[in-house]
Amino acid sequence: MYRVAIVEDEADQADALRRMMERSRWGERFEFVHAADAASLKELLSEGSRLDILMMDIELGSRGENGIELVKRCFPEGCGTQVIYVTGFIEYCTSVYRTEHVYFLTKPVSQSDLDDALDRAVVRLQAVGGRSIEVRFGGTTSLVRPDAIEYVESDKRKMRIHVGRDSLEMYGTLSSFSEQLPASFFSCHKSFLVNMDRIVELRANEVVLASGAVVPVSQKRRRLLREAFHAHLRSRL
Hints:
CATH class of the largest domain: Alpha Beta
CATH architecture of the largest domain: 3-Layer(aba) Sandwich
CATH superfamily of the largest domain: Response regulator
Distance between the termini: 37 Å
Number of helices: 6
Number of domains: 2
Domain Response regulatory: 3-122
Pfam families: LytTR (PF04397), Response_reg (PF00072)
Protein name: DNA-binding response regulator
Domain HTH LytTR-type: 133-231
Structural class: alpha/beta
GO molecular function: DNA binding; phosphorelay response regulator activity
Shape: elongated
Number of strands: 17
Helix content: 25-40%
CATH topology of the largest domain: Rossmann fold
């Protein structure tokens, strides 16, 4: 089953969208929840609810809440939730690219466009499969694809997981977290794990990543990292 959240302040429009989704070829595999505003969506997330697909209205009610900003705050890049924007305002068609999403639907939504959006979302969910990692902190659970992680840093018992321009925090150790990661991750320092797929430059004491972030490399692990990185590159040829 795929858990779908419909974030829409108009109850009748939320019901209509749910019925259309039930008519899609994936309808029997959807489990629906509804949030009328930012507060109710955050309440769902605070309960640790897993959300596979997010149907996000952009203008939410009289409070002036903005769905794009809500996605930026609550669904960081690489979290695994497939975001589909639904709005009556075509002028948002470029603003949505400030966030990771799979489709932009305009109201009134046609069944064919909705079916196309859902096909794309489900294909991406199937590609990720069971490889997403649960990150729990402060009562919130996020799903993160390992390939979206640039690096992980540790500060005593707390870890910070860097995903694109965002970061997530959780309690744990690098050694236990690394067991959930693919072979593309390397411990370049006692406090850092780096995704070798994201390295763009190797320096004497540090590596530069695709985002521009600079991660330190300990003296003991310089040679090992260089060897591992070159072997990793050869394996991709």
